[in-house]
Amino acid sequence: MSLYNAAGGCTAFRSWQGWLSLSTVNPGEGGLLVNPLLKYSTPYWLLRPFFTRNKTDGDWEIDTSSVWQGAVPGRGQEMNDSLHPELQPSTSMTSVPTVHPGDMVFWHCDTIHAVDAVHRGQSDSTVFYIPAAPLCQINVDYLVQQRDSFQRGIPPPDFPGGEGELHHVGRATPEDINTLEGRRAMGFEPFEIKSYMTPGEKEMVSKANTTLNL
C-alpha cells in the first residue's frame, strides 16, 4: 500500500497482525473475524483475478483484463459474496472467542479478516493494533524514523501527518519509558546478543545496534 502513499499503508514488516484488547468483547460485538481456511482461501484470492465465470454456462475461463476483484490502489482488498462467491465470506468468516482487557490476538497477515459489520454489544469494543514486528533491517530503518518522530512529538511514518503532539504540554518523552524492553522497542537501548542465537541472528542484532547508533 505504501506504493500509493495512502493512509494506513505500512512500510514496516509485520510477521503477524495483532491487537491488544482493552475491553471485554464477545462474538458479534465489534470483534475480529477471520477466515480460518488459509490453505484454501489464499490460492483462491491470488488466482481469482486471472479467471472469470462464463456468462453462458458458468464455467471458469481465463481473464486477460487488469481487473482485480475488490481491489483499489492504496486501499485494502474487499472480499464479499458478489466478487468472491466461492469464498462465501458472509458465512465462512469466524469470530474470535471472547476477549478481555489484556488479551492479545494474533493472526497471519495473509488471513482474510474483518470486523463485525453490526455491533450488537452494549459497550465499546476498544483495541490497540500491535503487530508482531521481527528484528530485521527494514524494521530497524523504520525504528530510526519512529524514534526521531517520538522525540519531536510528531506522528511517525505511515500515520497521518500534521503536528501531532508537538506543542502539547507534558507529552511523553524518552525519560518516561522506564523498562528496558520498552526502551529497546523505541530504539533507545541496544538489543542484546545472546549466546544461544544463531550466527545470522547475532549479525542482525549487531547491524541493528549500528543502525541505531547504540
TrEMBL record:
Q: What is this protein called?
A: DUF1479-domain-containing protein
Q: Which domain of life is it from?
A: Eukaryota
The family database entries (PANTHER family) matched by this protein are listed as:
DUF1479 DOMAIN PROTEIN (AFU_ORTHOLOGUE AFUA_5G09280), UNCHARACTERIZED PROTEIN YBIU-RELATED
- Organism from which the protein derives: Rotaria sordida
Q: Which Pfam families match?
A: Gig2-like
